[in-house]
Amino acid sequence: MPATPLNPHDLYDVRALLSEEERMVQDSVARFTDERVLPIIGDCFDQGRFPTELIPEMAELGLLGATLPTEYGCGGMNGVSYGLICQELERGDSGLRSFASVQSSLCMYPIFAYGSEEQKRHWLPPMAAGKVIGCFGLTEPHGGSDPANMKTHARKDGGDWVINGAKMWITNGNLAHIAIVWAQTEEGIQGFIVPTDSKGFAAQEVHKKMSLRASVTSALFLDNVRVPDANRLPGVKGLKGPLGCLTQARYGITWGPIGAAIACFSETTEYAKNRMLFQRPLAATQAVQLKLADMARRITLAQLLSLQLGRLKDAGTMQPTQVSLAKWNNCRMAIDIARECRDILGGAGITTEHSPIRHALNLESVITYEGTETVHQLVVGREITGINAF
Ligand code: TGC
Ligand code: FAD
Question: Whose alpha carbon is nearest atom 15 of ligand 2?
Fold first, then answer.
């Protein structure tokens, strides 16, 4: 009996390991990406514009706060479904996935995990509906890899807190209605919900970006910004607060680049099958087949890695080091594939008519933010040796 042809984008049939509900989530986000994102995203990237018009549809699909409980107006989905959302969004563009990651994992998650009941009831439903947009201010201009060395500080003044400092490279900064600002206090690092229309708060968009152009990136300035104690997240003190949020977001980021890699790989495979050089398709050359086969191998490994990570997350046993290994592996896999695809496209690969150069440029940010590749390698090294090399 002839073997059933394999799906080149899923050689190990990872999809068969998904539940029916997970497949439905993947299909609905895939449709959104195909119909709403792909037709416009090249132009958005060229124009340096985040497509804000897609926010209501993303909310409608339940993509904002997807894993948080339905009692707060959120999706109540499992971790694997959230991963699939990230994968399908990033198949469109890393900027769309970034928007969802920041809103869900870096803004709604800390309110859910560390906030008071009143904060959860007040903020989560409008954030899930895309009516309130958040940003997450951890990184500072003097060095993002070492957030323990935080200069931004908050001083108690009666029933208020007065916050001073600056944050750098903040996704959604100029879109946001609230910022989750992490600041040093006398009792250690604490998180504050800061409305962006507060007196003394300013966001300044970063221009001249060559990466994540379809995403808003900003610097935040806090000059004697005053918020009531009711805006402090009461459930956590110390660096483990923001790092706990990063674990959630990094988990999603292990899935996202798989989508970017699949987009590059499928477009380039079709191109190579149709491009005639030396009287034969480019895809008929051994050199190109080797490259495509190696891409398929790396995508397959990344899919299996993220799925197992998701199963660990849903079982409640996922550890930050496991997330670091997958973030490192999958970002490296995707950026290498995007660059190789760009090469196979030849001159045609240098314009945004084809997606690989856009994905390759985006992935320069993705491999840097949420912990650089080196940071994640050192986290794994620390786990293996028991020695902290930071
Ligand atoms: P260390 O001593 O290791 O840890 C301090 C405390 O935190 C706990 N912890 C974690 N908790 C949860 N998740 C993690 N991943 C955690 N890592 C550590 C740890 O147990 C400890 O708790 P406790 O109770 O003992 O106090 O801290 P360290 O200062 O040695 O730093 C370690 C290091 C370098 C790994 C950390 O600083 C780090 O991850 N640096 C990278 C910073 C980073 O990733 N920034 C990202 C900013 S946000 C962003 O980029 C958003 S992009 C969004 C988008 O557009 O998609
Ligand atoms: P640095 O920390 O200065 O690192 C510079 C280089 O030194 C890197 O190559 C790094 O790997 C290396 N390095 C650092 N420490 C060591 C070491 N011990 N040993 C060897 N090498 C080392 N931050 C937020 O808080 N919120 C956001 O929403 C957000 N969005 C972002 C969006 C974009 C597009 C980008 C580019 C960044 C975003 N960031 C955000 C910031 C991001 O997390 C930081 O850029 C990242 O953590 C690295 O910090 P840094 O840029 O200051 O680089």
Answer: 145
- Burial call 341-363: b when 16+ CB within 10 Å, e when fewer: bbebbeeebeebebbbbbbbbbb
> Of all atoms in ligand 2, which is nearest to the CA of residue 371?
47
53 included as an active-site residue: no
Domains in the chain with CATH codes: 14-128 (1.10.540.10), 134-231 (2.40.110.10), 240-385 (1.20.140.10)
* Closest to 184 measured CA to CA, from 202, 167, 159: 167
Q: Is the CB of 136 under 6 A from ligand 2?
A: yes
> Cα separation of 143 and 305, whole Å?
30
Facing residues of 166 across strands? 221
Helix (H, G, I), strand (E, B) or coil at 285: coil
pLDDT digits (tens, 9 = 90+) for 39-80: 999 999 999 999 999 999 999 999 999 999 999 999 999 999
Number of H helices, E strands in the chain: 12, 9
pTM: 0.98
DSSP H stretches of helix in the chain: 20-32, 38-47, 55-60, 79-92, 94-101, 109-114, 117-128, 240-274, 286-315, 320-344, 355-366, 373-385
33 lines ligand 1 (CB under 6 A): no
Instruction: State the burial class of residue 197 (Cβ atoms within 10 Å of its Cβ: 0-12, 13-18, 19+).
Output: exposed
In degrees, to the nearest 5, what angle opens at C-alpha 102 toward C-alphas 137 and 161?
A: 30
The residue whose C-alpha atom lies closest to atom 2 belonging to ligand 2 is 145
Residue 238 region by backbone torsions, left for phi larger than 0, else alpha for psi between -120 and 50, else beta: left
Closest CA to ligand 2's atom 14: 145
Closest listed ligand to the CA of 365: 2
pLDDT in tens, 95-133: 999 999 999 999 999 999 999 999 999 999 999 999 999
Pocket test for ligand 1, best of 169, 246, 322, 328 (most atoms within 8 A of CB): 246
**Atom of ligand 1 at shortest distance to CA of 371?**
44
Q: Among the atoms of ligand 1, which is closest to the Cα of residue 320? A: 15
